[in-house]
Amino acid sequence: MNASFPTSRPSACPGLMRVVQARDGGLARLRLAGGELRADAAHALAHAAMCCGSGIIDITNRANLQLRGIHDDAHARLVGIALDAGLGPQAQGGDDLRNVMLSPLASDATRALCDAIVGAMQRDPALHALSPKFALQLDGGERLAMLDHPHDVWLSATDDGSRYAFGLGGTVPHRIGDAPALGSVARDDVVAFVLSALHAFLARASNEEHRMRALIARIGLPLIVDSLSFDAVRSDWRRAPADASLRFGAHPMPDRAAWYVGAQPPLGRLDAATLDALADLASAHAQGRLVMTPWQGVLLPDVAESRTRYVIERLDALGLVTDANAPLARMIACSGSTGCARSHADTKADAHRLATLLRAPVDVHLSGCERSCAAAHPVPVTMMAVSHARYDLHVDARIAARNLSIEEAAEWLARSHADA
Ligand code: SF4
């Protein structure tokens, strides 16, 4: 997530929406249900970004939005705009409970189940004690899905959606070697199951244990699952593979006679004018809907096949990446020194510079410090800033080269790409 290091300064509207302090001003997180943003709400947020902040908007790797540079005296106004746009929580203190990740192509049925889970969580005051980082995944088996983020609780449809496999503190199994599912539950029991899993976590977690994996590491899985009710699932069950490249360009929708078009703003960052333009494009060609993705991109769903070429041209003109082979397509960077006091370098600017020097797309993560906020899952190559525009380069979590300039890193990556 492109989160800058927060301080403990409280929000002007505690419990409704979190605004934390970053180097470039207030940082407001807007949680979107399953990544969905109506065009009218997008216009409202673009307006809020301009009048309450710096106009910079980041799409996060949880398919939410962050508005940056929020002025000290604008917190309440921002919250008001967001609530008027229908983007607030259903209950005081419920904002942090909306961390449920879906595929950007989730069906209406999966979205309805997600709404039921989030609604039940928000109505349960005991669950408001969960950490803002506590996260769930609901996976309907879509071909475009982020499967590599570890989630505290995940559920994945095993068939037509009548049953869901589940696991705690890990990822949906989709490769040989992944941890297997713990069991399965009927769709009708999913909400009750999630609530029982969350209560089981809270009943056993210490004050220092905010994530399921921390509790599992201390007491083991059996003690946590003892109180849950579920059926066995085949131990070799794995989800059908997903294809992340489907987040770019035009493709048929899986469940209706329409297409979608996907793109990414470079490094997940938009300005208010671009969000406004995206909202206009959605109103004209995508039934008024935008869907943010966990790759920090955006999909326009329900586009007529005959309009897909035009929509791609507009996205290109707005500066979004629509080609999976563009150097910026697989590059991520944290907010860097312009937004975070911890950063040793301007990671965003350096990533843009690196992209101009690369001839092929490489999965690269530029991080301002060891916290690695931008990467919620392992990335093959991480460039860890050590000073202004200089990086140590790590491959598969092992250091491969030290103190490289951007030009040296580009050469290193080109060589290793050629050798591969
Ligand atoms: S410098 Fe570190 S703490 Fe700051 S945004 Fe980057 S990774 Fe996160």
How does this model look, in words?
- The chain is an alpha+beta fold and about 425 residues long.
- It folds into three domains: about 20-90 and about 245-325, Sulfite Reductase Hemoprotein, domain 2, CATH 3.90.480.10; about 105-140 and about 145-225, Sulfite Reductase Hemoprotein, domain 1 (2-Layer Sandwich), CATH 3.30.413.10; about 330-420, Sulfite Reductase Hemoprotein, domain 1 (2-Layer Sandwich), CATH 3.30.413.
- Helix content is about 30%, strand content about 25%.
- The protein contains ten helices and 20 strands.
- The protein has helices at about 40-50, 75-85, 110-120, 190-205, 210-220, 220-225, 270-285, 310-315, 345-355, 405-420, and strands spanning about 20, 25-30, 35-40, 55-60, 65-70, 100, 135-140, 150-155, 165-170, 185, 250, 260-265, 270, 290, 300-305, 330-335, 365, 380-385, 390-395, 400-405.
- The strands form four sheets. It has a five-stranded antiparallel sheet.
- Helix 1 runs antiparallel to helix 7 (about 270-285).
- It is globular and about 55 Å long.
- The model is unreliable at about 1-15 (pLDDT under 50).
Order of helices and strands: EEEHEEHEHEEEEHHHEEEHEEHEHEEEEH
| Form type | globular
Radius of gyration: 21 Å
* CATH level 1 name of the largest domain: Alpha Beta
**Spatial order of strands in the largest sheet:** 1-2-5-4-13
